[in-house]
């Protein structure tokens, strides 16, 4: 069996046994490229003979296992080492006006650290001596060599980049002071504490492993204190990075520091553990009134509360603008209680993307107490999966008092929960407008009496709503609107059975509803009140077909069903009447009933009477005089045009109006 004889940060040595071909090696910090890994053997002769091996990508059995064949002879020394000098060239080349990105900066920083380690390891193996003066000279020379490779690149970067990569050339007079030469500014603007070369390298490696981040300010077990220290150090703004693993928040973290961003390594790769035992917020960004809180990001992290069932919140913004949440995750079962994923109490331009939240209240848009008329302005929620775990809470909640403007919800799966999207408002102080709901799917609703989309206000009008390309689930009712003004439904699939209501909408008088290319299915319940113009599909078989347009005012508050061209049916009992138009309508009216009695009329307002033009399909079945027996009587009753049924039994009437209202 081969015997390890030396393990350094960039070099491993063994005494070969004549049979081993796969060699497990380990470098501090790994390696940047397989092109930087080399191997050779030395014979055990009086004058050793060196044999260099050709290492290719095919030589690697795995990331840290190198295969050398044939087997190295028994007693020979095997050496696998790293050389990151790249023929004396930096791994990235920056030019004036070009971009500077994190990947290239990290590559240069790692190359600098690796080259220094490799030089020191070479000194350890080749120049072991008891003469401190010789070692001092060598250390000075090797550091100068590092400066010669890295210096030209570093000098052209911005000051903060130079602070991370520059190695100072002046070395203290004793070997114990060599670490000072390696001390550059860290991300907090301070300096590393090491006083030896080896200690400095270890500290730099630790900071690099934490991606320039939170370990600089504290521990994973005390993440609240670490974040607080980081926010203090980055008082003018900045980003703190978190390595993978669990970061425990013993208490809530809140900051007013503007532009303070938190970035982890990935959804549920970096996780905040937060179990407060009472209502509290894990990460809160709040700068009060005035200009509010501005311009930060929270990215690539997860949250877990364990068995804690308190009503906690993962992330909360207060009176905030130009902020972003991306790649945040709460796994199912990890955020118990009546808990919130993301809460925003105002103000504008909050973007939530690429996020999965499984909890009782995934997203809550609350009232901005600092600016009550500007709550949810230009908010964007997209590419998310929201799983509502409570049958009494919606997945997306606009709280009472919230007004929203130019807000978009798109490309999002809305799963379970009570209502999919809910706004039940009684106290807002400004009209809401410009809501776009696009490319969404609701599914598996937990409350059969709830709605996929429910937007209603008794305080303000709901203006200009577009629902486009939506798939609404079978467990809930479809869309409920109140106090609406100008609504468009386009490419919406209503999958609920006809025992549920597809749409129930009450509009501001004279409003418009446009329905295009929607699939309701057969006999879906469509309840509309005050919609002035409706554009919908012929829907007798549940399939999309020709379109028709009708004025719904004569049949306001009726229940509509998919019907042939000619408007929805109006059921009129024997000896009863139904209003079909008011005195403001002028034009032509075509009427047919379930006995196939058909007639056409010209109408020009109540003061000008009514003229029957055609009664060609049946004989003497229509009149223009009320109370005529065994007839369909169409006449003015006060200011309304009515149909009176005296045919002896209840009949269904279809009314098609062509003309205009002069109101």
Question: What report would you give on this structure?
Answer:
By secondary structure, this protein is mainly β. Among the domains are: 81 residues; 123 residues, no CATH class; 174 residues; 86 residues, no CATH class. The chain has a 26-stranded mixed sheet that branches. It has a 5-stranded antiparallel sheet with strand order 1-2-8-4-5, covered by helices on one side. Strands 35-43-37-38-39 form a 5-stranded antiparallel sheet, with no helix packed on it. Helix 1 packs antiparallel against helix 2 and helix 1 packs antiparallel against helix 4. About 12% of the residues have low confidence.
Structural topology:
Layout (H helix, E strand, L loop, with lengths): L2 E5 L3 E5 L6 E3 L12 E6 L7 E4 L6 E3 L2 E3 L9 E6 L19 H25 L5 H23 L4 H7 L31 H13 L13 H11 L4 E4 L3 E4 L4 E3 L4 E4 L6 E4 L7 E6 L6 E2 L2 E8 L8 E18 L9 E14 L2 E4 L1 E5 L10 E2 L2 E3 L2 E4 L7 E3 L5 E13 L4 E5 L6 E12 L7 E7 L4 E11 L4 E18 L6 E16 L8 E13 L9 E4 L8 E2 L8 E4 L3 E7 L2 E9 L4 E7 L5 E5 L7 E2 L8 E6 L2 E6 L5 E11 L2
Parallel strand pairs: 9-12, 10-13, 11-14, 12-16, 13-16, 14-17, 15-17, 16-17, 17-18, 17-19, 18-20, 18-22, 19-23, 20-24, 21-25, 22-25, 23-25, 24-26, 25-27, 26-28, 27-29, 28-30, 29-30, 30-31, 31-32, 40-41
Antiparallel strand pairs: 1-2, 2-8, 3-7, 4-5, 4-8, 6-7, 32-33, 32-34, 35-43, 36-42, 37-38, 37-43, 38-39, 41-42
Number of strands: 43
| Largest sheet descriptor | 26 strands, mixed
Supply the helix-strand structural class. Answer: mainly beta
* Computed Rg: 37 Å
Which segments are poorly predicted (pLDDT under 50) over 5 or more consecutive residues?
A: 128-138, 156-192, 536-564
The residue-averaged pLDDT reads: 82
What is the subunit organization of this protein? Answer: single chain
Overall geometry: elongated
Distance between the termini: 100 Å
